[in-house]
């Protein structure tokens, strides 16, 4: 039917209220999404770093430094930087010359698109890609493999899921470590505990890399930097509580470690892009990863890791 010939009463008849939709917007530097129920995320293309995750009330769940580099001049301090293919620095030959935590957090990713589901359980998935052809030439020379990284950030009313799929597109096997370096926002670190690490062994990075055993929940009273191997399976949550109340639960997929980090006073002072200087009180990093050894990926193989962070 010709539009102009439609009876005018059709457009005048009041219909059901239009259902609010998932909204996604993007520009040259970031992608933002909001659910009809109000939850939102903001992802920087540099590093595919999730910078912000707000609940339906607009409360921020992630910590981001006031001095975070958001212009691509370095990795962002805060949110969820992606660590790949090395955690920290290592003298392991293939990664020995790479910068701390590798290059994924300091490369510009491509926004590949969105998938949405509407209705009672609306959600949105944003996909980002980084391939060996698109990383900086210096990095290509230092880590000369062929790979594709596909990173998906899924927002649902109570959950944030971040999934990294690593594919070896080349002829040569490579080894990697990876970790999802989430900075959670808290009110006061001294009221924070992490449960789920009871009886886990850990390497204490602030005490000469000694191996220790965790007893009870993890509490914070000084610089904390530990690589845990949780005793519980990845499907059982690590829980961050504050003043006795659960704040976040974290379920891991294919990530057998969890780093727990807080810089405390002195390290915060010494970290140029950490502002304000007393912000160590307001952050805790609980970082699912596979960082204890090296994961080998053979020609044509893929490996998928993920974390699901849930609100109470
Ligand atoms: O300063 P960055 O390179 O971002 O690293 C921040 C932190 O990341 C992890 O949590 C490491 O275990 C820490 O040793 C490191 O200080």
From TrEMBL:
The active site is at residues 181, 287. One of its GO terms (biological process) is carbohydrate metabolic process. Residues 1-28 are annotated as: Disordered. It catalyses: alpha-D-glucose 6-phosphate = beta-D-glucose 6-phosphate. Residues 1-12 have a biased composition (Polar residues). GO terms for molecular function: carbohydrate binding; glucose-6-phosphate 1-epimerase activity. Substrate binds at residues 77, 100, 105. The keyword Translocase does not apply. GO terms for cellular component: cytoplasm. Keywords: Isomerase. It comes from the Eukaryota. Its EC number is 5.1.3.15. Catalyzes the interconversion between the alpha and beta anomers from at least three hexose 6-phosphate sugars (Glc6P, Gal6P, and Man6P). Belongs to the glucose-6-phosphate 1-epimerase family. This is Glucose-6-phosphate 1-epimerase. It comes from Clonostachys byssicola.
């Amino acid at each position: 039917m010709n539009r102009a010939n439609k009876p005018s009463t059709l457009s005048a008849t009041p219909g059901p209220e239009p259902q609010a939709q998932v909204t996604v917007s993007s520009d040259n530097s970031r992608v933002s999404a909001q659910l009809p129920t109000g939850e939102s995320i903001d992802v920087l293309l540099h590093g595919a770093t999730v910078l912000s995750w707000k609940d339906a009330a607009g409360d921020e769940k992630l910590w981001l430094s006031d001095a975070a580099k958001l212009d691509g001049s370095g990795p962002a301090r805060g949110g969820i930087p992606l660590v790949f293919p090395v955690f920290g620095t290592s003298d392991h030959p293939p990664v020995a010359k790479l910068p701390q935590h590798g290059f994924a957090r300091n490369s510009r990713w491509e926004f590949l698109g969105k998938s949405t589901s509407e209705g009672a359980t609306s959600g949105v998935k944003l996909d980002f890609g980084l391939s060996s052809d698109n990383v900086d030439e210096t990095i290509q020379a230092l880590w000369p493999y062929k790979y594709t990284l596909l990173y998906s950030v899924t927002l649902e009313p109570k959950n944030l899921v971040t999934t990294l799929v690593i594919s070896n597109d080349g002829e040569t096997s490579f080894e990697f470590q990876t970790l999802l370096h989430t900075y959670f926002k808290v009110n006061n670190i001294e009221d924070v505990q992490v449960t789920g690490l009871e009886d886990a062994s850990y390497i204490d990075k602030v005490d000469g890399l000694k191996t220790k055993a965790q007893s009870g929940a993890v509490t914070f009273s000084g610089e904390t930097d530990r690589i845990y191997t949780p005793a519980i399976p990845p499907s059982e949550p690590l829980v961050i509580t504050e003043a006795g109340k659960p704040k976040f639960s974290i379920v891991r997929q294919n990530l057998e470690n969890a780093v727990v980090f807080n810089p405390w006073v002195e390290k915060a002072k010494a970290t140029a892009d950490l502002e304000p200087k007393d912000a160590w009180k307001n952050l805790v990093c609980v970082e699912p990863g596979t960082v204890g050894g090296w994961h080998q990926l053979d020609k044509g193989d893929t490996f998928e890791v993920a974390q699901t962070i849930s609100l109470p």
